[in-house]
Design brief:
The complex is a heterotetramer, with 2 copies of chain A (about 400 residues) and 2 copies of chain B (about 170 residues).
Chain A (H helix, E strand, L loop, with lengths): L9 E2 L4 H8 L4 H6 L18 E6 L8 E7 L5 E8 L5 E2 L7 E8 L7 E9 L4 E8 L13 E3 L5 E7 L3 E7 L4 E7 L3 E6 L4 E6 L4 E6 L5 E7 L15 E3 L2 E5 L4 E8 L2 E4 L3 E2 L3 H5 L2 E3 L5 E4 L4 E8 L9 E8 L4 E12 L1 E4 L6 E6 L4 E6 L5 E6 L5 E5 L11
Antiparallel strand pairs in A: 2-3, 2-31, 3-4, 5-6, 6-7, 7-8, 9-10, 10-11, 11-12, 13-14, 14-15, 15-16, 17-18, 18-19, 19-20, 19-21, 22-24, 23-24, 24-25, 25-26, 27-28, 28-29, 29-30
Chain B lengths: L1 H6 L14 H11 L41 E3 L16 E2 L2 E2 L1 E6 L4 E6 L2 E3 L8 E3 L27 E4 L2 E5 L5
Antiparallel strand pairs in B: 1-7, 2-6, 4-5, 5-9, 6-8
The chains are: A mainly beta (about 400), B mainly beta (about 170).
Chain lengths: ~400, ~170, ~170, ~400
């Protein structure tokens, strides 16, 4: 302790035995009885739990420092985190969850300097980077929406939404780890998977643009479908829930628009109402940044709702309304613990519903079958806005 | 911090109170397809010196969210970040593409076109968050969507704060 | 966020409740001058599975700031960050240099040497902030100072959270 | 509006005249009467105001996104900001304030990848980077302390404190924009200017290490001075205030230790008490991260104080006590608006005292002459911890 640099630091571990012996007054076996190893780092189980859930945090007050937190909704414990750069939005998660794909933006001086856009490939067990795929520095910076990126149903190609402000998709081959090319989607935005190598984007005029890829990820064909919804009046949300060969989009005035894809195109399914006339008069409204979820096995739709004028359609929700998709019948209403900006449902038989409060940074966990509040997990991020369940059941036969 | 956090409840870029005046937007959109560079008009510059607080009508105080030009604001007021309601803070860059709203000035009862030009190149200002979520549309309708960081049109997409540039008078509602 | 913010009032790295046991620190410091690499002891590993909340005595619950080993803690408890009180979260790296405190375990009334090894390589955990500011010294006395990010001794100096590694029993106070 | 990418964005400015004319119903002169230019960016005055103050924010919840905010303490207005990377601490400000020097750390992927340490040189008028000087990636990451870096009194050489955990100083020549070399300061830490090309560091054993540079910034000589203070008992703070050829350090039990430098060495000045015996019994204690300041022209010392046990010596202060340095007499006590972690005093005749509340993110402004509270400025950062006044009076004759 009397000089030199050695006093500065203590290397833990190797020399403690000698030190302890020198300490005297206690026997060596006693000492060894209680002693930890140094340097242990956790790894996660090979397969994710059905109730593990990623909370995605764009960190809007410090956008260069985006994060994602993995929680076990059963125990309420955090499993780990990933750091995801500037203006982070969400992951693209393959059904097998053998990897995590994340479209990210970095600056060489954090907020200035050279911009680098990449798809980071993370190991879901070690939560470490496994690979990095360079992208054109064009990815959209938006308030978080899950479909700022998407994986094709074959799990191979990732589409990243660009906005410069011209809109396009960057296509990445997750197998070869290569950027394949950029495909313009003029007038349209976002990317929704709709087949093995097919994606569609929603367009400002109420249509959709269907983009089909070749087996190598290059553009095979594009086609526009008009008049799928009313972009001016009863417009649909820019976030929806997948159910088989359809994406379900709730609309401003409480209708449900199924967009069904069959083969290479897309068509409007039968629109049905989420609210009664009385509820519509009472201004029951869709809500949040991620306002719907589907439990596929039971065919149930969960929609985040609150009461408010049309302009409040993104305000936090106070209830979740649950529907049987087949009949369009509302099954029940769930009162939420916190003002909720995002909901998600696990896909197992004993499913949980989760709700995210960005303001107070809480993740609330409910049973999906009866909406019973199980627990609330605090400190889940700075401005957490979206949730993603990594576990998916095996694909149904014939799909 | 509490107020700051609560403000994020409405953090959702670029709202506009009145978006029924589509025809002019259409015209502008059509006229400006393919435009590039930074067009600067040789007209009178706005005064960068603004009162820290207004004892006046809040709709006439550029430092307040209630300021009439902020009808389409969703972001941090540049007047609280080293800039003003019409200029960017030192060391930032004004984005040249933007979402446009139409706001009525109670002082003369007229409607004006306001461009919400973002200032870009420094991390979020985090001061004087001002969000008005009226008239917003989803991301797939960018010209009307408040969910987009318009620094996309600058040389950096690092969002700092938002100005309210008065472009001119709006035409009457059809 | 309120609690989180308040916790920063005491954010000041590496405190220790009882720092009168300098002789062992001196010994360790002397013994380890010039040591390098990551020494790993082949002794029993601590259990990474910890209760989310303890109905038990808080001094025996590793998820709580009151946990006896946290007497010298100043940082985020790794048990709340995907690790445990003795292991780092996935994808981080345990720093090999550290500030050491001496804590008494109420369960056996004995004093133990606790190393507050930081986990490094991911941004601040921001969960379960735990600060106890007793016995702290200024920066110019690093071995006793809670103001230093000890990820300085890791391959990255990005601080994430802090563990409480039990190194062994402390010698009696002279 | 009917397709193509053009609808996405509106280029503001150039075409508004045509558009406005098309709008009709109003005359062209009316339209032009109210119209702003696009693209205006503010610049600051050539010389800083005497009451401008930098608030330094390490952003402890998102450390890759450090910031500094410049405020005008008179108007309460923000003048602008700088982004300063990972684990930011403070600037080194030359007396002429013609440039701002900032020791910074960056990671190529914000929290991972290649680490780059630099001194960024900023233009104080445009708040833009002017140059960047590469450093060895060793700079200390600490809770903010002003003397993690320092400029020599000749204004030319910047010393950056390194801790790996071995301690050293990186010397940078601000004129040639070059890293000159690294100088070990074993057993010692921080850097305090003490002459044209002389710095000293405080040592764990109660001494100091004086480092003198050659005219080219290389090491000229180093000497140790022992027993300047008691590092175990009545230890001094690691932050002090400069007064002429002395640094004044308050101590744990309320004494004031002047460390005086004359020529190439340093000596302990006469220690005097900041508190009465009664106040010491009542546990009046030094406080904060930046707990003292000097108004040079009047020879007054400002010390941040609160009541608490010795272990609370860094807790926020509740009062500022003002002393005449020459006589050691306490002049008055100032009650503070908020719990304060840092204080600073402007150097003009009509000086202001500022206090920083990290918790509620407030900068409080008082008159330095009588401690009258003038205003509180809110939203001054995420975890703001230090303040720096850029304006300094011209150097006194003969110095």
């Amino acid at each position: 302790m009397k000089g030199g640099a050695g006093f500065l630091a203590v290397m833990t571990g190797a020399c403690i035995f000698a030190a302890s012996v020198a300490g005297a007054g206690e026997s060596v076996p006693d000492l060894l009885h209680r002693q930890d190893s140094v340097g242990k780092v956790e790894q996660l189980a090979e397969s994710p739990g059905a109730h593990w859930v990623w909370v995605l945090d764009a960190n809007l007050s410090s956008m260069p420092d985006g994060r994602a937190w993995l929680f076990d909704a059963d125990s309420g414990r955090s499993m780990g985190s990933l750091n995801t750069g500037y203006s982070f939005v969400a992951f693209a998660l393959p059904r097998a969850y053998h990897e995590i794909y994340s479209a990210e933006t970095y600056y060489s001086r954090h907020t200035r300097g050279v911009r680098t856009d990449v798809v980071s490939v993370y190991d879901p067990n070690t939560l470490s980077p496994r690979a990095e795929i360079a992208l054109p520095p064009k990815r959209a910076s938006t308030i978080p929406r899950l479909n700022d990126s998407a994986l094709t149903d074959d799990g191979r190609f990732m589409a990243v939404f660009n906005l410069t402000p011209a809109t396009s998709l960057s296509i990445v081959d997750t197998r070869t780890r290569k950027f394949v090319g950029e495909i313009g989607i003029p007038g349209c935005s976002l990317a929704f998977p709709a087949g093995a190598r097919t994606l569609f984007s929603l367009c400002f005029n109420g249509g959709a643009l269907v983009t089909e890829l070749n087996p190598d990820g290059s553009l095979s064909s594009q086609s526009r479908v008009e008049k799928l919804f009313d972009a001016e009046g009863d417009f649909i949300a820019d976030n929806g829930a997948r159910f088989g060969n359809a994406w379900l989009f709730p609309s401003l005035y409480g209708n449900l628009y199924p967009l069904e894809f069959t083969g290479k195109t897309i068509k409007a399914g039968k629109v049905w109402s989420l609210v009664t006339k009385k509820e519509r008069r009472e201004n029951w409204r869709i809500s949040g940044y991620q306002g719907s979820a589907v439990h596929v096995a039971t065919g149930r739709l969960f929609v985040l709702m609150h009461q408010g004028a049309p302009d409040t359609y993104k305000d936090p929700g106070t209830e979740v309304w649950v529907y049987d998709i087949g009949s369009g019948k509302r099954l029940w209403r769930i009162a939420l613990e916190h003002a909720t900006v995002a909901i998600g449902v696990s896909q197992d038989a004993d499913a949980v519903l989760v709700g995210l409060d960005m303001l107070s940074s809480h993740l609330d966990v409910y049973t999906a079958v009866d909406g019973r509040h199980l627990r609330s997990i605090g400190e889940v991020g700075v401005t957490p806005a979206l949730v993603q369940f990594p576990w998916q059941p095996p694909a149904a036969p014939g799909k | 911090m509490k107020n700051f956090d609560q403000s994020f409840a409405h953090f959702s870029r670029f709202v506009a109170r009145r978006t029924s005046r589509r025809s002019l937007l259409t015209l502008l959109g059509a006229a400006l397809v393919g435009a590039a560079g930074v067009p600067l008009l040789p007209v009178a510059r706005a005064d960068a010196k603004e009162p820290a607080t207004g004892a006046v009508d809040p709709t006439q105080d550029p430092m307040r969210c209630e300021y009439w030009r902020n009808c389409g604001m969703d972001g941090f007021l540049c007047g609280c970040c080293g800039g003003s309601s019409t200029s960017c803070p030192p060391g930032t860059e004004m984005a040249t593409t933007t979402w446009i709203g139409t706001c009525r000035d109670p002082a003369d009862g007229r409607d004006y076109i306001i461009a919400y030009n973002d200032c870009c190149g420094k991390s979020t200002c985090n001061r004087c968050m001002c969000g008005r979520n009226e008239g917003d549309r989803p991301i797939y309708y960018p010209a009307k969507s408040n969910n987009i960081n318009w620094c996309a049109g600058a040389s950096t997409n690092v969002y700092h704060c938002t100005t309210t540039i008065l472009l001119g008078m709006s035409e009457p509602v059809p």
